[in-house]
Amino acid sequence: MSVARVVEITSTSKMSFEDAIQRGVDRASKTLRQIKSAWVKEQEVQIENNKISAFKVILKVTFVLEDVG
Predict the structure, then answer these.
(1) How far apart, in whole angstroms, are the C-alpha atoms of residue 3 and residue 15?
(2) Measured between alpha carbons, how far is 69 from 15 in angstroms, rounded to an integer?
(3) pTM tops 0.85
(4) Is 61:26 a contact under the CB 8 Å cutoff?
(5) pLDDT digits 0-9 by tens, 21-38
(6) What is the three-class DSSP state of 39?
(7) How far apart are CA 36 and CA 52, in angstroms?
(8) E strand or H helix at 20
(9) What is the DSSP letter of 27?
């Protein structure tokens, strides 16, 4: 039997939502092991001078906890 945990992270990109998602997953995988899924909870764009300056996502990342003992 496995037990999973879900953490929420925020990631931004100047290029696209897809790039923000990939950056978030890449960064999470440096700290978390056994990542199984991620889903986008929220998306937003940041605006400067009436133009999109950044794409931001809030991700829910699921990973399996390691057995102890």
Answers:
(1) 35
(2) 44
(3) yes
(4) no
(5) 999 999 999 999 999 999
(6) strand
(7) 31
(8) helix 17-31
(9) H
